[in-house]
C-alpha cells in the first residue's frame, strides 16, 4: 500500500488467555482513538493462541464503513485473504481508498502482527439507488423457524472458551461432528466493540466465517480444513440480530476445498459467503 492517501490505523492488543468469554462485554475493548484490546472471545477453536477469522474480518468491515465515508453509500462486499494464522498479539490495520467515487468506492486494508502482514482485505461501497430498481421475484421458499434452544456442542479437544461460546448457535439441520451440509441460525452474544452497536454487515462477517466449520465433511481430530480467505457479498443489509448460515463444503482430490454459504435473515436471503479451504492431515 502506498502513502498517497491518509491511512486509518487500528492497533489491537490481543492478550493470550485461555478463559471463558462469559463476563466480557465485547470482542474488543476500545482504548483510545484508534486502539482496541481484544478479550478472550476472539480466540478460535483450532488454537487458543490464534484468533477466529470472524472478529478481525468484522473489524475490516467496520473500518471500511467508517473510512472517509460518502453519504448514501453502503458496504456491499468484503473479501479478506488470510496470509497466515492471526496470532493473539498486537494487530495493526492500515486502511486506504483505492478508487474514490460518489457511486462506488473501493477500500483496502492490511493487518500486521509481530512485524508480519497477516490479513489483506478489500471492500466495495455502493451508492444506494435514489429510486427502487426492479428486482427478481422472490424465491418461493419458507425459511426455517428459529429453534428454541442453543444446540451447538463441539468436537472434543476444540478450544471453546472463545468465539464458540461468544456466539449463539441454533442448528436447523446438521451439527458439529455430523458430516455434511448444515443450516444454523447464529448471532453474536457480544458486540464487536464495547460501547458500540455492531453494524449488520459486521455481524454478518463474524457469522459467515463459520461456514466451513458447520458443514465439515472430515473428522477435525484427524484433519485440518481451514480457510485461507472469506468473501461476503450482500445484496441488501440484514435486518434483526439473527443470520441463517446455509453452508455446504465441497472437497477436491488434491487438498483444496470450497465452503459456500447462503446467508439469510428472518425476512429472506441477503447474500452469499465463500471460503477457499486448505485440507491436510493433522
UniProtKB/TrEMBL annotation:
Residues 146-279 form the Acyl-CoA thioesterase-like C-terminal domain. Pfam families: 4HBT_3 (PF13622), 4HBT_3C (PF20789). Residues 43-125 form the Acyl-CoA thioesterase-like N-terminal HotDog domain. InterPro entries: ACOT8-like_C, Acyl-CoA_hotdog, HotDog_dom_sf, TesB_ACOT8-like_N. This is Thioesterase-like superfamily protein. It comes from Planosporangium flavigriseum.
Amino acid at each position: 500500500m502506498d502513502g498517497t492517501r491518509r491511512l486509518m490505523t487500528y492497533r489491537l492488543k490481543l492478550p493470550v488467555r485461555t478463559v471463558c468469554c462469559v463476563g466480557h462485554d465485547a470482542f474488543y475493548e476500545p482504548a483510545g482513538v484508534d486502539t482496541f484490546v481484544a478479550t478472550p472471545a476472539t480466540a478460535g477453536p483450532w488454537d487458543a493462541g490464534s484468533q477466529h477469522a470472524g472478529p478481525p474480518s468484522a473489524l475490516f468491515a467496520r473500518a471500511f464503513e467508517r473510512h472517509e465515508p460518502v453519504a448514501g453509500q453502503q458496504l456491499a462486499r468484503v473479501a479478506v485473504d488470510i496470509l497466515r494464522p492471526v496470532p493473539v498479539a498486537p494487530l495493526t490495520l492500515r486502511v486506504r481508498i483505492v478508487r474514490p467515487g460518489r457511486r462506488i468506492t473501493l477500500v483496502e486494508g492490511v493487518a500486521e502482527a509481530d512485524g508480519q502482514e497477516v490479513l489483506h482485505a478489500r471492500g466495495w461501497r455502493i451508492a444506494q439507488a435514489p429510486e427502487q430498481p426492479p428486482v427478481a421475484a422472490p424465491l418461493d421458499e419458507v425459511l426455517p423457524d428459529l429453534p428454541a434452544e442453543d444446540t451447538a456442542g463441539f468436537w472434543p479437544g476444540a478450544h471453546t472458551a472463545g468465539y464458540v461460546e461468544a456466539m449463539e448457535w441454533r442448528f436447523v439441520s446438521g451439527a458439529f461432528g455430523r458430516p455434511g451440509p448444515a443450516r444454523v441460525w447464529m448471532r453474536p452474544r457480544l458486540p464487536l466493540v464495547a460501547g458500540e452497536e455492531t453494524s449488520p454487515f459486521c455481524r454478518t462477517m463474524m457469522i459467515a466465517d463459520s461456514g466451513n466449520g458447520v458443514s465439515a465433511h472430515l473428522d477435525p481430530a484427524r484433519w485440518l480444513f481451514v480457510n485461507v480467505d472469506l468473501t461476503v457479498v450482500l445484496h441488501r443489509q440484514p435486518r434483526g440480530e439473527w443470520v441463517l448460515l446455509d453452508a455446504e463444503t465441497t472437497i477436491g482430490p488434491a487438498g483444496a476445498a470450497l465452503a459456500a454459504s447462503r446467508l439469510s435473515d428472518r425476512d429472506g436471503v441477503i447474500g452469499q459467503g465463500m471460503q477457499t479451504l486448505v485440507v491436510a492431515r493433522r
